[in-house]
């Protein structure tokens, strides 16, 4: 028997603003199994390898979202983490282990679409996931930093170089696929009606 091609994603929302947490849960409830918590400590109690996506506010009471992210990565939990925050990104994000960065306010379509992108990425290999995560950090900075600040930052330059190397590796891997291998590899992320 074949596994369910579209299992219900398990999503953890870590948000101390009760109204926002309620909105996020309402948006996701039709398609996801949603758990909401309001502190970093509680998030660390709840998150597990069965969690697919964590939406994590950077500013939380007690333990910050940055610290929670670091603890999740130290525990080697295979989960996509999306920072959802009012904090404009700065160069410190280049070393953070998140998969995407959303600046509040976030609308329903972006929020729900992010879950879809994150769960699709779970099917990719490590190099592809790293490429997308680095691309998210780069894009978050480019949205708020002037070109001269970006050009002067060595970590930003390093990220650009890493992206170029990863892109070359990914392209080489895709080129090595036989047509039937390529179809099989991406069959899981097709949507109904694509055929």
TrEMBL record:
Keywords: DNA-binding, Phosphoprotein. InterPro entries: Bact_response_regulator, CheY-like_superfamily, HalX_domain, Sig_transdc_resp-reg_receiver. It holds the Pfam family HalX. Residues 10-119 form the Response regulatory domain. The keyword DNA-binding applies. The modification 4-aspartylphosphate is found at residue 57. It comes from Halocalculus aciditolerans. The keyword Phosphoprotein applies. It comes from the Archaea. One of its GO terms (biological process) is phosphorelay signal transduction system. One of its GO terms (molecular function) is DNA binding. This is DNA-binding protein.
């Amino acid at each position: 028997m074949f596994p369910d091609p579209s299992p219900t994603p398990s999503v953890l929302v870590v948000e101390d603003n009760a109204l926002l947490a309620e909105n996020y849960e309402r948006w996701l409830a039709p398609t996801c199994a949603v758990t909401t918590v309001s502190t970093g400590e509680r998030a660390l109690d709840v998150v597990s390898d069965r969690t697919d996506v964590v939406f994590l506010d950077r500013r939380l009471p007690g333990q910050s979202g940055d610290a929670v992210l670091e603890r999740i990565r130290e525990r080697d939990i295979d989960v996509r983490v999306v920072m959802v925050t009012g904090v404009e990104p700065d160069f410190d994000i280049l070393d953070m282990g998140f998969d995407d960065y959303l600046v509040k306010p976030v609308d329903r379509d972006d929020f729900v679409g992010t879950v879809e992108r994150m769960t699709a990425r779970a099917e990719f290999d490590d190099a592809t996931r790293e490429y997308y995560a680095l691309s998210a950090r780069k894009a978050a900075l480019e949205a708020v930093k002037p070109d001269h600040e970006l050009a002067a930052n060595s970590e930003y330059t390093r990220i650009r170089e890493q992206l170029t190397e990863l892109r070359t590796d990914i392209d080489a891997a895709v080129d090595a696929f036989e047509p039937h291998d390529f179809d099989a590899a991406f069959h899981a992320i097709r949507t109904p009606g694509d055929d």
